[in-house]
Amino acid sequence: MDMASHPASINSRAHGPAQRARWAALAQDAVEANAFYAPDMLCAALDHLTGQPDIRLIESFDSGELIGLLPVVVTPRHGRLPIPCVGNWMHEHCFFGAPLIRKGQEISAWRGFLAQLDAAHWAPGFLHLQGLDAAGANAAALEALCVEQRRGRREVHRYERAMLRSGLDADQYWETHVRAKKRKEIRRLQKRLAEMGMVEQRLLTSRADLPHWCADFLALEASGWKGREGTALVCRVGDAAFFRSACAAAFDGGRLHMLRIDLDGRAIAMLANFRHASGAFSFKIAFDEAMGRFSPGVLIELANLHAVQKDPAIGWMDSCAAADHPMIDSLWAERRTIVQYRIALHGRGLARVGRTVAFALANSAEALAARLKGQS
User: Rounded distance, CA 241 to CA 238, Å?
Assistant: First the structure.
């Protein structure tokens, strides 16, 4: 099908109300949920995360209808290799990279994305895609389209992270998937904590409480090791503003899921989740390290398990955790496989030659490194 049937456009970082409304409509019908690219979080990131490279928002259309949105950036290096390339934009607080694509339009949307990148004078090297679900609709569409277009495609890396997806209620899940010894220890910690004062678990329900909850979360996160290392959200003004803005937009859209555990009215553990479609993404967790002997991080995750499993609107939750995370891996039994791909870009003349060479060099360097690692 020729590109006349798939008009596409590239937008700058400017994003007005009309664009946001268009993206919101697309997000509602997306084949793969991604709260990080839904307007709530994407626009908050574009507005507040300063110091980012030039971000281009690629839109793909079919017969005038928006069918895809992919934020991309140009990077001067590909991992350790001094090879510039274009990649999907995953900022420091973005943990899933699947573009928003309308259901049933997966291959058409990717056809539009890749055609734009092929034609773009600013797009060097190849397309490096991070944070995709190996079993998701985007991965499947990419594989099919690359075969059809004889376009090089290489898997760069994959890992598994914890996911919560079960028809069991919270108590059944806890009994089934968490070791008896650990369950006993958690019950003991809950009892000891209750002896310290009044313990209360709460889910955010009031818009009026949101600023207070955000402030408590930022302070709690900054009180621990992230604050000492300068990586807490509050350590950078833009990051804190991004968090507040994303939470406000998500709450107004019915997509913020925020929990806390208080001891005598003071937060000792909090977490924020962002919902999209039938799923949710665990975004950030914070707890009082001075209360570490009570494992407040585990206790807030137990509260989260109960909140998620009794909410019929949440069918699954992605932990967004690193691979082999000792705490969440011991609590959640399901896994999601996250992959990176290197996709060849085409073009004309010297542009095509340069991109072909860059793709081949990256593949060769990776193969050589793997051989040397095997010999060591």
Answer: 5
